């Protein structure tokens, strides 16, 4: 067996002289073109399905035994062989060869080499079409569980900051212009809500992933007396797909997962972008932990928020992967088409990328430090209390549109005088509207404006406090459920 270095081949997959067309029927009289083997192989990237593939094969073989298609002794030979192959793969002894195309063929061939003719029975009532879709569903199901766990870690990192940051008030921005003052934990909770919807979306998607494909065979099912419900039970699938044509070919579950991941990436990107802005000298609201920053090779003073930038940057490839999958599946007729082999790299990449993003985001959130002085210094600027001032007038029975223009005039007056609204005199307020009284000062200033909030879901301190407690319970419960 000789391995030749070939630039078109990924690491660890060798070109050998073992001989190709494993499992060829008698139809072929010509050997496959080597260039075709290299072009069509997928083992270089679908190897990571090995564990799912072996699990699927073990369940399939067990079902074949239960239904009398395999004898007990044939089943135990197959089981022993597959377990041994799993051990070889995990210890790095297993060899990959481009001519055996994909991980499914590799494992089956290794089984035949190991246990002889009985190994040739494993593929009974099965095709790679239903095999690959089953493997992918097993893999995605577990990857979703991992992402779900990471999302809770991220929420937990935000909630972990809330008590300490509770009294910090920052300007909230709309149109990236200073809008109204809010409690910092109100922002942290905003992210928790987003990542909660991401969790729910994944959970819902998982139901549609968790469907058994095996037994659909190539497209039409099989004339052999199999029991697909048994296989589903062995593999922990919630349901058995009711149509062999559909399940052997549709990749909607891959696309749906890719979208869920793209949405997570977008939420992470919003957070990262916000924190990049907060980290500028102009804002100076926040410092990432130094261990999460890098310097510049030419400007000695620089401390760059690279991790945040890359969290934002990696969103591009996750969105790109979704786009790839959408285009890949457009225009495919029923049922399985080889194009579908191209679904793997994008979806694996999206899962891996999001996992690494979430793994880094959580400690970064935990370790970041708010610059309370810089934030406080900024709060008096921008008339953040103008809206609560307007609502004060509305409370006195003034129509909203009228109150809006009265406060607009007061803001203009304060701007001309270069003072905050709280520095205007009671006389000036009363000249603007007769109903102003001394209580007006109790809604002015960022702290008073926040304290005067009342509505459910607002930044009112008691509302935020309640939400923090709800979130703490939710997160504790999530961890106990894992
Ligand atoms: N490597 C293939 C894939 O990922 C497996 C299925 C191939 N099926 C076939 N009939 N050639 O889609």
How many beta-strand runs? 8
Quaternary structure of the protein: single chain
Q: Tally the helices: what do you get?
A: 18
* Overall pLDDT: 94
CATH superfamily of the largest domain: Fumarase/aspartase (Central domain)
Structural class: mainly alpha
Q: What is the terminal-to-terminal distance? A: 46 Å
Strand arrangement, largest sheet?
A: 1-2
Order of helices and strands: EHHHHEHHEEHEHEHHEHHEHHHHHH
User: Please, how many domains?
Assistant: 3
Shape: elongated
CATH class of the largest domain: Mainly Alpha
Radius of gyration: 31 Å
Enter the CATH topology name of the largest domain. Answer: Fumarase C, Chain A, domain 2
pLDDT below 50 for ≥5 consecutive residues: which ranges? 1-5
CATH architect. name of the largest domain: Up-down Bundle
| Percent of sequence in beta strands | 5-15%
**Largest sheet composition:** 2 strands, parallel
Listed once per kind, the bound small molecules are: arginine
């Amino acid at each position: 067996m000789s391995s030749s270095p070939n630039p078109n081949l990924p690491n660890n997959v060798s070109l050998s002289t073992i001989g190709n067309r494993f499992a060829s029927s008698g139809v072929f009289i010509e050997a496959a073109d080597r260039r075709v083997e290299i072009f069509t192989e997928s083992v270089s990237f679908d190897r990571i399905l090995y564990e799912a593939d072996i699990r699927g094969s073990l369940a399939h073989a067990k079902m074949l035994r239960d239904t009398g298609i395999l004898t007990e002794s044939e089943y135990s030979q197959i089981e022993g062989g597959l377990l041994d192959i799993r051990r070889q793969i995990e210890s790095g002894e297993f060899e990959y060869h481009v001519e055996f195309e994909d991980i499914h063929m590799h494992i089956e061939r290794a089984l035949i080499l190991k246990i002889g003719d009985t190994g040739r029975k494993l593929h009974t009532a099965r095709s790679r079409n239903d095999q690959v879709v089953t493997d992918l569903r097993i893999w995605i199901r577990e990857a979703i569980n991992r992402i779900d766990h990471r999302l809770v870690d991220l929420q937990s990192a935000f909630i972990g900051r809330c008590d300490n940051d509770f009294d910090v008030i920052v300007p909230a921005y709309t149109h990236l212009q200073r809008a109204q003052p809010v409690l910092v934990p109100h922002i942290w909770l905003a992210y928790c809500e987003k990542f909660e919807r991401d969790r729910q979306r994944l959970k819902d998607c998982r139901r549609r992933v968790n469907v058994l494909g095996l037994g659909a065979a190539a497209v039409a099912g099989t004339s052999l007396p199999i029991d697909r419900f048994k296989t589903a039970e062995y593999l922990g699938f919630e349901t058995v797909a009711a149509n062999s044509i559909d399940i052997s070919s549709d990749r909607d579950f891959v696309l749906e997962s890719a979208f869920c991941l793209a949405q997570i990436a977008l939420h992470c990107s919003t957070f990262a972008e916000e924190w990049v802005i907060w980290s500028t000298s102009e804002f100076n609201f926040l410092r990432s932990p130094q261990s999460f920053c890098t310097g510049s090779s030419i400007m000695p003073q620089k401390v760059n928020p690279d991790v945040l930038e890359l969290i934002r940057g990696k969103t591009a490839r996750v969105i790109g992967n979704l786009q790839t999958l959408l285009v890949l599946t457009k225009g495919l007729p029923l049922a399985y088409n080889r194009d579908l082999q191209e679904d793997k790299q994008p979806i694996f990449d999206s899962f891996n990328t999001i996992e690494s993003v979430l793994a880094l985001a959580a400690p970064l959130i935990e370790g970041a430090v708010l610059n309370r002085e810089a934030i406080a210094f900024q709060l008096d600027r921008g008339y953040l209390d103008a809206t609560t001032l307007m609502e004060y007038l509305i409370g006195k029975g003034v129509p909203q549109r009228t109150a809006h223009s009265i406060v607009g005039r007061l803001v203009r007056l304060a701007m001309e005088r270069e003072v905050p609204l709280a520095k205007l005199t009671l006389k000036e307020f009363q000249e603007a509207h007769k109903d102003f009284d001394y209580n007006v000062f109790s809604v002015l200033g960022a702290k008073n404006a926040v304290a005067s909030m009342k509505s459910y879901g607002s930044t009112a301190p008691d509302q935020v406090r309640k939400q923090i407690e709800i979130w703490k319970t939710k997160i504790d419960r999530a961890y106990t459920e894992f």
